[in-house]
Design a protein that fits this description.
This protein has 106 residues and is an all-alpha fold. Helices cover 72% and strands 0% of the residues. The longest helix is centred in the first third of the chain and has 14 residues. It is globular. It starts with a helix and ends in a 7-residue tail after the last helix.
Length: 106
Amino acid sequence: EHDAISCSTAISACERCGKWQIAVILLEQAYHDSVQPDAIIYNSVISACEKGARWQIATNVLEEMNAALFPPDVISYSATISACQKAGQWQHALQLLALMPKVSLT
């Protein structure tokens, strides 16, 4: 069984190593184990996806943050926009950039 701290540690390690697939699997496992991900976990998964230019997955995790009542922060948006940029998805990056002032980024 996992807790939020061990989940966060494992996902952060995946982020540093560029293992976005494993980071996503660990996030899914956290849901399965009834571990409530926090902003650090979500941002680590988004950052791992950014390193792999997985813009669609990063965007999905950004949306999951909102659904889980963890509003995305500057780190969340920056990493997602960077993932879009790395994948050549400039239109989507601009949409996210335009959305940032409309949300409360603290």
